[in-house]
């Protein structure tokens, strides 16, 4: 049974290049048998879901609306929340580490929430997030998908729940 | 790929009899290939998870705390939320129908939230919930686990998202 | 500065009789200088808000949608949440005791959530909620508005946060 | 009755200089009769609350825990949520515009969430948030407290709820 949850976050509209990168991240995550959490919609979410799905992995789509049918075709477990974009933060809560791919304000919001909750973020692109507290997580930039996934898995394994992160 | 989510709700401390009933509900749900959502902890949640797991199904545990290790041993997908008991309502949001087994105030809160969100509840025990609005769901009492699961699956298939349920 | 929060819950469509009762509860709560929390919309929510407002008290409307203008005309502080009916449970989290007036499944869901979170509920009408755990709150039935408010204030004063209620 | 909600966000540990700035922002907001939303704890939250309070305004503290007594001494309306840092996003949901003062990853997370939800942010310090979608809000940098407040009020007045921001 898979024992690690890793979130993949990124924009809902992406170039073909970023889609391919996301797909590859999904394939590699499936190979390592982790459960992938994402927002379940389009763009990075859809491309990574396709990769996980074609690698026979499990991808959980935490959806903003009430209707499971809003999920893309590759999501294994559809989780409607009815919370709108606030569902982003449930994706982070569910995961022990985060992989960030190109995105906009929403993606930055998730990545910086992860840091503030003491979780590490591996970003395939440049990403700057201020970090001021001992308990906060770190950002690592790693453009290679295979290395990024391996790093995220190691970080997820080392993550521990601390009362002060509550 | 499983296309229906069904929630199983019930008390965190249960008699052997109620545990066996919950286990059977889990086995039957696994047989019908639905994704089971529950609170991921003890009592009904653990007994139903064991049934799903031994039937080779998928059970998602929506957890109150921040730590995935608080889940019982049979949960397939562990989803920490950090929302405390408010996570109960995410279990309902994620599902298209609900099976209610014996419980206390928390279980009643989930079942009546389901009704108010327009979702049907199949209860293995007597359950009274006031229903005043057209858009609200119905409670069906069905003590037989096999029949209760079949009924919940039919109700879940007929569930449709309506704007006014928002 | 007011030091107690009390939730008033009830149906969104009410008879004139129940509206008058709700209005009176609001007037009395304002007299005792507590902050009143409600869902901010119609029915009991509007009638109680009018009572608080005309008694020069503060009423906070925790709204289901994104738009503050969905609040009724008597709400002092409008709090859009975008969480739909899940906002009900924020009303309970915000308060130290709850007054329940006639309602449907949604109201029962809030009242039983309060009990499960260790908060007491004073109901103006008959209300049955199973209670199985030491840490759970109690239901008190008191049809007289003045007495119901006084009782809720005493219960709110005695409420204490306990780790195990988390 | 105040008709606008404005959020003030910033770090929980601040220099004397930033505290004074936050206090001044609070005084000015009170003067203009808006309802101020913040996280209700220490640092910027406490300094701005003191300013609002001494200006006889209303400041709502949306708290991470379950206990209203965790609020700082200057909060008018204490709103425990039990959602941990996820309460940050309720502060944004409640407001029509945001004033950002110096902070760490948590503050960046709130500011970028605001942008992604179509709300404008006035920042007293440099703040870079990617913006890719038409519906997203804007960041304005304005170091002068009086001007920053006036700008935030104008932006809040112009904010309108659009379905696509859901």
Automatic annotation (TrEMBL), chains A, B, C, D:
Signal peptide: none
Pfam families registered for this protein in UniProt: LDcluster4
Listed PANTHER family: CYTOKININ RIBOSIDE 5'-MONOPHOSPHATE PHOSPHORIBOHYDROLASE, LYSINE DECARBOXYLASE-LIKE PROTEIN
Cellular compartments per GO CC: cytosol
Record protein name field: TIGR00725 family protein
Species per Swiss-Prot/TrEMBL record: Thermoplasma volcanium (strain ATCC 51530 / DSM 4299 / JCM 9571 / NBRC 15438 / GSS1)
InterPro entries cross-referenced by the UniProt entry: CHP00725, LDcluster4, LOG_family_nucleotidases
SUPFAM superfamilies per record: MCP/YpsA-like (SSF102405)
């Amino acid at each position: 049974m898979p024992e690690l949850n890793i979130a993949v976050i990124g924009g809902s509209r992406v170039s073909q290049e970023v889609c391919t990168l996301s797909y590859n991240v999904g394939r590699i995550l499936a190979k390592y048998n982790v459960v992938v959490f994402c927002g379940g919609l389009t763009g990075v979410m859809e491309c990574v879901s396709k990769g996980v799905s074609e690698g026979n992995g499990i991808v959980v789509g935490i959806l903003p609306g009430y209707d499971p049918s809003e999920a893309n075709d590759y999501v294994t477990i559809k989780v409607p929340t009815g919370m709108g974009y606030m569902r982003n933060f449930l994706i982070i809560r569910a995961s022990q580490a985060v992989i960030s791919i190109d995105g906009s304000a929403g993606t930055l919001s998730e990545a910086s929430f992860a840091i503030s909750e003491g979780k590490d973020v591996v970003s395939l692109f440049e990403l700057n997030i201020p970090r001021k507290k001992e308990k906060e997580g770190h950002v690592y930039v790693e453009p290679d998908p295979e290395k990024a996934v391996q790093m995220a898995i190691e970080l997820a394994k080392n993550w521990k729940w601390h009362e002060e992160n509550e």
